[in-house]
## 1
Amino acid sequence: MSPSKPLTGDSSIKTWLEDPVGGPIIRDLLSQAGQDPDVLRPVHRLALKRLIKLSKGSFSQEMVDQLVARAAAGDVPTGAPAASAPDAAEAAEAAPEAEAVERPEWVERIDQGRFTGKTVIVTGAGSGIGRATASRIAREGGKVVAVDVSQERLDDFRAEHDGAEVVTLVADITDDAKIAEIIAAAGGRIDGLANIAGIMDDMTPIGDLTDAVWERVMRVNVDGTMKLMRAVVPGMLAQGYGSIVNTASEAALRGSAAGVAYTASKHAVVGLTKSTAFMYGPSGLRVNAVAPGPTITNIEASFASPLGAQRVRQAMALLPDAAEAEALAASITFLLSDDGVNINGVVLASDGGWSAA
C-alpha cells in the first residue's frame, strides 16, 4: 500500500476522516462542539477548505491552517476517536474501484456575457440556490432583480456584487401588491424569471397533516410561483421572448422525498410549468423546471410525525451526496439562458442520479 499523501485544505473531508492522523483530529474537533462525524456525510467529497464558506463563519481559514499543521506534525489528541473504516454504503460505493481515487471537484466556470442585456427576476435570492443563481446571472452580465424576505441577506448579497447591476427588493411573493413592486423594479423589460423561493413542510403524511401546514406550504410554493408567472407573462408575450424556470424538487418526481404538503406543492409546480410551456411555446416563451436533489441550503426539514420520519428516512438510504447551491444554479441558468433555446416544458432532475435509483 502506498503511503498516504500529506493532508491539505484541498484534501476531501472523506480523506481527512479516513486518515489515521487526520481522522482523530477531525473527530476530536467535532466532539468538542458536541457533533458526530455523520454531520459531514452530505459534504464528505468536498475539500476541507470548502467548509469555510458553507459554515458561514463558524469554520475559518485559520482553523483549516491549524488542522493541516497538526496533521503534518502527527499531533493526534490523546483519547481521540480513531479514524474508522468506511461504512457499508461507502464500501459498496468504492468496491468497483481497484484503489481509492479522489474525484475532482466541480468548478464553476463563468461565461462573462451570457446574460448581457437581459433582466432576470430571482426569488429567494438571499440564500441557498436563489442566491447562487442570482450571483451567477449578475457575474455573467445580467441585471438581477433579487427578491427575498430578508433585508439583511439582500444587503449582504448586494455588497458581494459591487459593480454588478443588482436591484434588491424585500417582498412576500404571496402578496399581490409586492408582486406589482417586483415587476416595477425590473424597469419595463423582463427576460427571465427564476422562481426559487420556497419552504419545506414537516414531513407529515395526510393522516397527520394540519390545515396550517398545508395552507402555508401551498401558499408559498404554489400561489407565489403562480402569481409571479402570471405577472411576467404579458410582458414576455409583448416582446416575443421570455424564459421561466421554476423550482420543483425530487418530491415532484416521487412520493418518498417529503411530507404530503410539500410533495403535492411540487407536483403542482410541475403542472404550472408544463401547462404554461404548452400554452405559450408558440409565442416565444420557454417554461421549464429544475428538480433538485439533496442540496446544501438554508431550508431545513423537521419531522412532526414519527411515521413520516420513519418512511422518509428509510427512502433516503440511497440518497446521493448533497450538492452545493452553485451546482443547482448551473442547471437553472442553463435553462434560463439562450443555451436552453430548444428546451421547453421539461422537468430537469438535477439530483446526482437520485431519480434514476
## 2
Amino acid sequence: MSKKKVNILKSINHFLVFFLLVGFVVSCCMLLFLETMANSMGVELTSENISTPAKITMLNVLLITVLFTIIDYVRRKLTVERPTNKIIEAGRKITNGDFSVRIPPLTSIESNDPFNEIAECFNKMAQELSSTETLRTDFVANVSHELKTPLSIMQNYGSLLSQPNLDDEKRIEYAKGVVDASKRLANLITNILKLNKLENQQITPAFEKYNLSEQVCECLLDFEDAWEKKEINIQTDIEEDIYISSDKEMMSLVWNNLFSNAIKFNKNGGMLSLSIKREGEYAIVKISDTGCGISPQVGKHMFDKFYQGDTSHATQGNGLGLALVKRVIDITGCDISVESEVGRGTTFTVKLRRINNEVLEEAL
C-alpha cells in the first residue's frame, strides 16, 4: 500500500473518531438540555417539534468534526510530523556516513518538549560518532604509516642482501637492518594489541601488595646497556621498602616506557635521575632526564596515540608508549604529571597511594 493511501486512511480514521466523539457529546448535551427545558416549561417533546433542532444539531456536529479534524491535522503537521521528519532526515544522513549533521532546536509551545530532548540526545550521539570516526580514520592512517616504514626498510635491505658477491661486512650490516626493522614492527603490533585491550577493558587490574622501590630499580637496571651506550649518568634518591597495592605487570609498563623515553630523548653524556619518596599517604616516583625537553604545544598531545613531538627520534619508537602509560595510570587509579623545559629536560612524576607500614605488618 502506497504512502498516499495510508495517509488518506489515517485522515478518514481521524475524522470518524472526532465525528463519533463530537456526536456523542453534543447528543448527550442536547438531550439533557431538551429534557430539562421540557420539564421546567411543561412542554411535551414530539418528533415534529424536535425534527428541525435535530437536523441543525447534526449539521453542527459535522461542522465541529471537520473543524476539529483540520485543527488536529495542522497540529500534527507542526508539532509531530515536522520535528519527526527532521529527526528522520538527520538519521538518514548519519546512516550515509555524514556525522556532521546536527538537529537545530525544535520550537514548541511546551518548554520541555520531548522532541527537543530527542534532538539533544541525537546531537550528542552524532558528536560521539564523529569523534569515533575521526579517531578511527587517524588510527588507520597512523598504523598504515607506522607499518609501512619498517616494511619498506626490510624490503630495501632484503633487496640489498640478494645482491651477488656481497662482502661479509655489508651482509651483516644489511641483516642487522632487517632485524632492527622486524623488532620495531613486532613492538608496534604488541603495543597496539596491549593498548586495544586496555581501552576495551579486556584487561582488568589484578591488585597485589608489592615493593615499589624494588620494582622500579629492577626496571631501571634492565636499561643498563642502553644508558651505558649513550654514556648517561644515573642519579638515584630512593627510599627503601615502599609498598603499594596495584597491578605489578601493568605498572612495569609505566616504568619501562618512562625509562625508555628518558634514555632515548637524553643527550649523550646526559643525566637520568630517579627519585622515590614517601609523602604522607602517597609514594612519589620522579623520573627526570636532561634531554631535548617538551614544548607546551607538544605537551598537550604527548599522551595521544602515535603522536611524536620529536621527529628526529621517530625511528626509535612508534608514539604508543605514553598512550599506554596514561591508560595504565587511569585504570590503576594513579596520577601522572609532567614538567618540561625545551633544551633543559623533562620530569615525569607518578603519584601512587602507598600501604602504611603498620597495615603491611598486620597483613604479613
## 3
Amino acid sequence: MNLEDVAQQAGVSTATVSRVVNNQGVVRKSTRIRVLKVIEELKYSPNLHARALAGSIRMIGLVVSNLENPFFLDIFHHLEIAAHNQGYEVLIANTCYDRERLQSSVRMMLGRRPSGMAMIVSEMEEGLLDELLERKIRTVVYDVSPPRAGITTIRTNYKRGMQRIVEYLHSLGHRRVAFIGHHPSLGPLNDRQRVFVEVMESYQGGVEFRVATSDDSFAGGRQAVRDLFEGFRPTAIVCVNDFIALGVLRQLRDMGLRVPQDVSVSGFDNIMLSEMAYPALTTAHIPRDFIGKQILDGVIGGNVPDANSSKDTLIEPELLVRDSTGSAPV
C-alpha cells in the first residue's frame, strides 16, 4: 500500500495526501477527513523509515495535547533523558487537543517504525488503540483509557486530588468558590470539573459555586477570571491545572485583588513555575519524572503487557499547600 493508492481512492492528488500525512500546508477540513478515512481503511503508513538511517535509530513516538503547557514538556524532558541513556531517540508531536491531528501524528510516527508509542493526551479514539494493538506496537497511554489487554496505562486519581483541594479550601472558610477548566467535553478534563461540582454540592447549602472554561493557556486563565467576575465574586478559585492558574494570579493582580487575602487560588500538576510564582501556588503534585520512567518501561522494558494482560498504574496526587491559599476574607 502506497501514497498513490491513498490518493486514488480519496480522489485527491498525492501532494494533498502528503500534506495531510505531514500536517503541512492548507487542506480543506472535508478533504482532510476524507483522506484520513481512506488512510485508516487502507492502514497506510508512510515509509519514512526507508528514508531514514536504514534502521540505525531506535525511536519512541510521543504525542501530547499541548506543548505550551509545561506539564507535557516536563514529561518529554524526563522521557528524553531516560531514553537517550538507553540509546533511544524521542520524536514528539503536538495535537492541540485535536483528534484529527492525533490520528495523523500517530500514523506519521508509525511510518518511522518506532519501538513504541506513548500518548499523553486528553482526546482519544478507541479505534486508534485497536490499530496499534493490531500492529503489535508497544503502547503507553495516560489518562484516556481504562486498563485493557496489551496496553500500558497510567492514570491519575483526579477524584481524590480534587477532593483534597476543595475540602482544604472549605476548611479555610471558603463558601463562594469557582472552578476554571478547559475542553470540558474531553473525559480526563471533565472528570476534574465533575468532582469539583460533586464535592461542592455535597455541602448541602451554605455554599455558592460557578464553573468557567477557557483555553489551556496563560491567557485562558486571565479571560476566565474576567468572565467570572462579571456576575460572581468568589473567595477561592480552583484551576484545572497550574498553567491556567498562573494566568489567574496575574489577572487578579491586575484587577487590584490580593492573593490570598482577597481570593485564594489553587492549581493542579505542580509544574516548576508554580513554586516560582508570586505567591507560590497551592497545587496537587503529579510526578512527571515517574510518568516518563513508566513510559520508557512500557515501551522497551521487560514488564510489557501481552495480548492477554494489562499493566495499569494509578498515581495518587499529593496536596502541596503554599502561599496562594489562606482563610476566607471576613
